[in-house]
Every structure is written in C-alpha cells, then in structure tokens.
Amino acid sequence: MKIKQLTVVGAGTMGNGIAHTFAQHGFSVLLYDTATAQLDKALQTIAKNLNRQLQKGKISEVLKIECLGNIQTTTEKERAFSQADLIIEAVSENQAVKKQVFKDIEHYRKNNCILASNTSSLSITALGALCKNPAKVIGMHFMNPVPMMPLVEVIQGHDTDPEVIDTICQLSKQINKTPLVVSDAPGFVANRIAIPMINEAIETLLQGVSCVEEIDNIMKLGMGHPMGPLQLADFIGLDICLAIMEVLHQEFGQSKYAPSVLLRKLVAAGHLGRKTGIGFYNYTKDFKNPSVARQFQTP
Ligand SMILES: NC(=O)c1ccc[n+]([C@@H]2O[C@H](COP(=O)([O-])OP(=O)(O)OC[C@H]3O[C@@H](n4cnc5c(N)ncnc54)[C@H](O)[C@@H]3O)[C@@H](O)[C@H]2O)c1
Fold it and tell me: pTM score > 0.90 for this model?
C-alpha cells in the first residue's frame, strides 16, 4: 500500500521528531494536537533541530526549507483523520487519553487507513480491539530523538495483517530507519530491558549506594553506555518511565517491576527531567551541561 497522506497525532517530544523525520524524507505531514501552543512549540523545535543539522552539514538549506514546507498543523479532528493513509499516534502515555484518541480517529478514518501507535508499553492488541478493523493497527515505536535514532521497533498485534507489517517496514526504510519486528508483549523489547535498568539505578541512588553522577559514570565508563541511566531517565521523561514501569508491574505481576518510590515522588513533584527543567539534573541554567539537581547534591 502506498502512503501518500500522513497524520501525526500529538506534537510533543516524539510527535515533533516523527513529523520532522517524515517531512525530511519528502512526505507531506499533518501534525495534530489539541493544544495550539504545543503545535507552535513543535514547529519551533523542528526549525531549531533542522538548523542544527544544517550547521553540521547533514542537510542543505534547500532541504531545510522543503522539510518545513512539508509540515502543516491542525487542531481539527476531521481534517486530521479523514484523509490520512497512515495515522501515527504519539499522544501522552496514558491509557484513558489513548483510548479517547483512538475513538476519535475511528470515527473519521478511511477504511484502509493504517493506525500506528508509538506507545512505549501499552498493548497494541488491546488498542486494536478498540477499532473496527484491528488488522490495520500496528505498533511503530520510534526512539528519542527520532531524527537521530536508527531503530523503529515494529509491533505486531494479535490481529495485525502481515501486509500492514510489510507496508510499515518498507516505509521505515524509506525514512532511513531500520525496522525490527517484535511480538506484542509488555514493554516490547527495548523498554522491557531499558526501563527496569533505569528503575534499578533510581533504587541504587535511593539506597545511598552511590550518587547521581557516579551512577551515570559507572554505566558510561564501565558498560560503554553513551548516556548514564539517570541522564537517560531525564531525557525520556520521568512520567514516561513511571508509566512504563506501572504497565510492566501490572502485566507481569512481579515485584521486580515495582516502580521506585523515588521515581513516583519526582513525578508527583512535577520534576519530569529535561522537559520540565529538573529531574535528577537541573537544566534550567545550562541545558547542555546540567548540574546535579539540588536534592541530590552531596555535601
Ligand atoms: N519520550 C520518549 O523518549 C519516548 C520514546 C518512545 C516512545 N514514546 C511514546 O510516545 C508517546 C508520546 O510521548 P512524548 O514523550 O512525546 O509525550 P509528550 O508529553 O512530550 O507529548 C504528548 C503530546 O500529546 C498531546 N496530547 C495529549 N492529549 C491529546 C489528545 N487527546 N489529542 C491530541 N494530542 C494530545 C499533548 O498536547 C502533547 O503535545 C507516548 O506514548 C510515549 O510513551 C516516548
């Protein structure tokens, strides 16, 4: 199936990256969000990221202008959903919010439109069951930052049509990504492994085994990770990390997946990492070289 018209739903961290990546590869993208401010912010972020690519010599000025020209924004559901061949959902990782969005999309979408969710942990099979035609529902799990990360974890729901998997794999290659197909299971592969590691790093901090920078440096220098687990948590967003741990805990029912109380506390305080300015590090004074957040500084 040829994908001509694409809608990205949700203009946050992931939505703007997904829109940017498709637009850069010549696709016409409609970016939909309920919040106009989020759409404006997304366009600013995309422009800033394109400028960075331009400065590094990765794209030309012409491509930058073409890319920006390929993106339109809307807050109107009918416009967003009724003409699309593919809708990629990237709204907040909250089951109730996603269910409502799926209902809205279902009301307007064309029969042959593919609906892909960028969910980090929710069941693609369960999301598919909300739709008339679950064969057209699939997981398309991009990594953050989307323009830079080569992987798309493609998740096959129980009823996903093999032809839809083929279409999504072909499409992922067209935008220069590597698709890897996995079965529908809590956390899929990437987050089932990465997020419990982050949770364990938070427990290690909470138990006073070591401090923020030391924990990150141990994993960077000793394990060859490009980013420490606490830095990574701030980068992903602590709310997203908590939501994923909660799904793993609920679905597997094992105590090893219980979210750290410190993770819960930071989310309750609104310290979600880079997107709010404070998490394990404080990004408010120097975004690129953050200091350890006041609460975690050692005397
Ligand atoms: N942050 C990551 O590193 C990461 C990585 C992979 C996948 N994901 C997944 O991507 C999805 C989005 O995550 P994010 O980090 O971009 O979140 P975010 O909080 O940055 O953005 C969410 C966006 O959804 C919008 N939204 C909320 N309700 C909506 C609705 N009813 N209709 C339309 N838009 C609505 C919000 O206005 C916001 O712009 C989640 O499912 C998350 O699990 C996140």
Answer: yes
- 278: CB partners within 8 A, 6+ apart: 271, 284, 293
CB-facing half-sphere around the CA of 59: CA atoms within 13 A: 22
Tokens 């030391």 sit on residue: 214
% of the chain with per-residue pLDDT over 70: 100
Instruction: Select from 3.40.50.300, 1.20.1330.10, 3.40.50.150, 1.10.1040.10 the CATH code of 190-294.
Output: 1.10.1040.10
Q: Shortest CA distance to 12 belongs to which of 84, 82, 97, 70?
A: 97
Q: Does residue 123 register a pLDDT over 90?
A: yes
C-alpha span between 88 and 236 (Å, rounded):
19
33 CA to middle of ligand 1, Å? 10
Range(s) within the chain of domains with CATH label 1.10.1040.10: 190-294
* Catalytic-role residue among 121, 153, 172, 249: 153
121 assigned to active site? no
Which ligand 1 atom sits closest to the C-alpha of 144? 3
> From atom 1 of ligand 1, which residue's Cα is the shortest distance away?
236
